[in-house]
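User: My advisor, Dr. K., asked me to get a structural model of this assembly before our group meeting. I'm new to this, so sorry if the format is off. These are the inputs:
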Amino acid sequence: MNPIISARGLTKRFGRTVAADQVDLDIAAGKIVGLIGPNGAGKTTVMKAILGLTTFEGELDVLGLNPSKQRAALMEDVCFIADVAVLPRWIRVWQLVELTGKLHPKFSKETCLQYLSKTKISQQQKVKQLSKGMVTQLHLALVMAIDVKLLVLDEPTLGLDILYRKQFYSNLLNDYFDEERTILITTHQVEEVEHILTDLVFIDNGKIALNCGMDEVEARYTELMVAPANANAARALGPMNERELFGRHIFLFEDADRETLKQLGELHTPSVADLFVATMSGEMA
Amino acid sequence: MTRLIALMRREFWEHKSAFRTAPLVIGGIHIALLLKAIFTTAHIDNELYTFKEGVRALAQQSADFRSAHFQEAIIASSVFFTIVLSFVVFFYLLGALFDDRKDRSILFWKSMPASDVLTVASKLLTAMVVVPVMFWLVFIVTQVLMAVIASIMIMSVGENPWTLFLILVNPIGPWLMVLFSYLASAIWFLPLYGWLLFTSSFAPRIPVLFAIIPPVIFAVLQLWIEFLRTFTLNTSLFGLVGEWVSNSPAILTIQVHDGDAELAYGWVGAGTFDHAITVGNIIDRLFSLQMLYGLLIAAVFLAGAVWMRRRATDS
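Assistant: The format is fine. Below is the predicted structure of the whole assembly, which you can bring to the meeting.
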């Protein structure tokens, strides 16, 4: 099957800094991909390139189009929420719905109004009168009413309280996602999205540090928790990373023999956050 | 086409107070001034008249005299609208490609399948057509209201508004002339509109400074170098812009013609065209060599604006 996004040697420079460095990336349809990296790693640059918001070197193909040259055509099949509060502040809710309907051929006004009716947002309100959480609900209602193939979310829940954050992702999964659609998410709040992701991409210093499916993560990475007495034995097996928690040592192993590890202590599947820390600190060392 | 109209509606919604409230305020001022003249006194030829005296004096003038003066008065009362209109258009264009970069809502607009050419076109057409037509409509409504108020008051002092002015004046001609002048001016000033949109598309902050300071520095240098070379103050960017305004088909000044003061296009006393208010004089301007150069310059600036817009994001 053809990938929805395919990048070869994607590079973007800002003066001397290289924000994206020879990125190769393929994303297939029907996936929920988490693009995760530290601040300034190049996540947003890669996203902007995919959305046609920046120029770049190298090859990039999104749904068969070149984003930097064919943004308008691409936006018929791609939607994005670039963090909260980018909706124009002066506009009234009904005007926004009306305009989106006129500008986007795949927008369903009925669906959008249906989603909005489940919120406290009223049609006559201006965006600047809404709380941050309500603006996100509004944006999500607009986007979920557009029938697109790719949805890109850049820090969609930044600054929202936990109730809105939970609701955001549950709406997205229950009412929107299906096999035809692909969702690409960047976020710092890894814990929040890890159970909904199907694929994981780590990016650091403009390079892809890890790119695999979540099932692969479970198969490849193991976390071992041992008492101090066994710490040296574990260290000898060459872990990616070690940390201490309440006097116990926790090691992260890649492609290790589980039978050997089991004899030293307890085994777990690592969380994405721990894997992230291990991968990034490995790079830094 | 649907998208272009939708984008222009968006401009109207966003700038309702400038596009609709501003002309309404000017209309209100006109009516307030009329009421002031009715209920207190008015200056006519350096003498104070009460309304009643003024109407009597007017009734004694010949029908031709009244017809000509009312005709002139209709066009004259457009000047205030025109001046405010030019300010509104100026600041609208400066903000057009800047405001959404500043508040980051450009990220939302760019998530819609509308091309950057279409976006820039919608802003340019709003400045060229939507805003002038709004001002023009309010201008007409104001005049109708003023005629109604004046007629009632004229009847109340025992004169007949029909014979005094209503049947003498056909306002349609002057009204259409004002509209034609607005639309022709929008074309005439395209190089300026292009420059403003271009500045708006790249200015990192305070676009008005970026629009004004570089040309001023350029013109001052030009003047200085020219002066050092020839010891005369002659052509410069200032002169060029001044001449452009002088030649414009906007009704802005008064010229004296056969001993009578009458309204005129542009800035009388400068420029190379006939300033008398006729359709032919507008056509002369629109099909002149200057206009052709102007359109070429405008095309360069507009292409620059589209190019910048294509690359613009929130940062």
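One thing worth pointing out at the meeting: The CA atoms of residues 223 and 234 of chain B lie 8 Å apart.

User: Perfect, thanks a lot.
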